[in-house]
Amino acid sequence: MTPAVGKDTMHRNPPPLTTTTVTVAYAGGDERRGPLTMGQANMIRCILRDDPTHINIHDVWPAPEGTTSAAVTDALRALAVRHEGLRTTFPHPPGTAPVDQVVAAEGTFTVTVLDHAELPGDPATYAESVARAARAGRFALEREFPLRITLLTVAGQPAYVALAFSHAVADGSAMAILREEFAELLAGKELPGLTSLPPVDLAAVEASPAGLRKSEASLRYWERILRTGPQEMFAEPRGRRPGTDEEARQLTLRSRRGGRALAGAARRTGHPEATVLMAAWCALVAHRAGQDSCVTAVPSANRFHARVARSVTTTSQDALLHLDVRVETFDALVARTWGAVLNAYRHSQFDSVRLWEMIDRVTAERGSHFGRDVVFNDVSALPAPLLGTDTEDRDDAEQELAWGPPQSLPTRLLAFTYRTAPQLHISLWAAPSVFTPEEAEEFLSGLVLLLEAAAAGDVPMEALAEVTGVRPAERGPGWLRVDGCWVSPDAVRETLGRAVGGLPVWVAEEPGPSGTAEEPPGGDGTAEGAAGAGAAGAPGTGSHLTAYIARGETPLTPEEAHRALTALIPAAGSGVLAPHRYVLVENPPTEPDRSDAWRRLKTIDEGTGRSRQV
């Protein structure tokens, strides 16, 4: 799918001669009701919370020459009858989230027809702008038909169907299936019988004992990563806290060089292109961030089983990849990536409500704020790639980088891979607080350079800066690696001081007590490997933070200090992680900037609000 970017460009195009609305009735389906699928619940949570232009999705379907408007509406009607997901609404009282889905046996939808004397000079771009504009406005889940349909015609002759979809009923794969079936219907072909489950039946499978066990395993997998992995990939002085939106411009790479290099690296290593590209992405992200591992969300369609492969619904849920990059060579990382990616996808089906409850609980206990900092979405394998008009075929580009319009970005680094052959085609949105425009261009160019080097031979991981030209983040001597995260003790001290009402605070690095040191990730780069390498509670040697607070007459406990700090962390600057231990004293020492002076003071109370139990 193509993310919503930039402003509506329709005003720059000539207006249509006429605008009419056609109401299309459908009937012949079955009326049904049942609980939500896990994918629906996940997306509905986002729909109720996020900007509609970010969460709604769109596509453009060309109409073959000679197609009539009646044929278009007949095909759309047939799709509505064929797929229960398109006849689904989600009733719920105001102020609540839906828990059920209702499938209508019959109903109506509307088609807005924009008739033109002629389309603009770039008709496909115009059609895409119409579809994108329809994403504005939240879908009324309880009553609205989940497709907003605009038919673009020239003197009454259909040219394009521009559609905006509610993400509650469709994801990128579902849109591709519908596009394919629409074309077959217009060609007069008979569609085969449905082989995948409709959403109501899929929800029943997910609620079965086997489905619930799968969800529980996914939650355990995520929890291990949240408790042991870095909370910010781009924790550095100039960074912002994860979850704070920034406006980032789209940077698009089109590179035949990259396509050849990826194919060559895949042949040489004997691994699929998708695995090699993921390894290169994670290697470069971790290198740029100065991290020992890469945590990246990999949106997953969860369509690995025939019962879901061609289901028109949303199965989108994040796979969370935690890849340890501490290996000698790139080939070793590719080999590790294969298993880690499969493990991440295997654990990408879960109860999203329980997931977020767990995330809130774990981050409060750890004294952190997990950020969906990095997202890598490879849609190149969709059966009919949803490229959007700004990503159409331009196969003659040996290598080009082009800047596009901005969009609000709730992540630090977002990439969509649209194609891998004959050219590598990636769009990147990089937060300007972390990447200057030059650094964003260097990152994508460096990705191609890494693939070219990997196609020629194995690449030492220590040579990434030399090979790619990408420089690691600069943090300065005040930053520490604590509990798998980059932390600024100064930022922790400032935030904790505000949390406890301005009481004198000192934060010191100290040896970790037995049972609280960070554990090394496992050799396979997975969270399961981390658990196997040393269970939480085993003796450790890592350094940790201790916070000294001179509370005076203020009635304060370590647990209260931890809760107050945790409440501020989501809005705090980068590099803030709760101390492992709080030591309360009566008054600050005469030399308040010396750790040993604080340690010599009489302790009134000490403890931790953290928990590392998995």
Describe the structure.
With 614 residues, the chain is an alpha+beta fold. Helices cover 34% and strands 22% of the residues. The protein contains 18 helices and 21 strands. The strands form 6 sheets. The protein has a 5-stranded mixed sheet with strand order 1-6-7-8-3, with helices on both faces. A 5-stranded mixed sheet has the order 12-14-15-9-13. Strands 18-19-20-21 form a 4-stranded mixed sheet. Helix 4 (123-133) links the parallel strand 6 and strand 7. Helix 3 crosses helix 5 (172-186), helix 7 crosses helix 16 and helix 9 (273-289) packs across helix 11 (330-346). The longest helix has 20 residues, at 209-228. The two termini are 36 Å apart.
Helix content: 25-40%
Overall 3D shape: globular
For the record, give the distance between the C-alpha atoms at the N and C termini, rounded to a whole number: 36 Å
Rg measurement, Å: 26 Å
Strand content: 15-25%
Uncertain residue ranges:
1-11, 384-392, 514-541
Count of strand segments = 21
Give, in spatial order, the strands making up the sheet with the most strands: 1-6-7-8-3
Give a short synopsis of this structure:
The protein is α+β, with helices and mostly antiparallel strands. It is built from 18 helices and 21 strands.
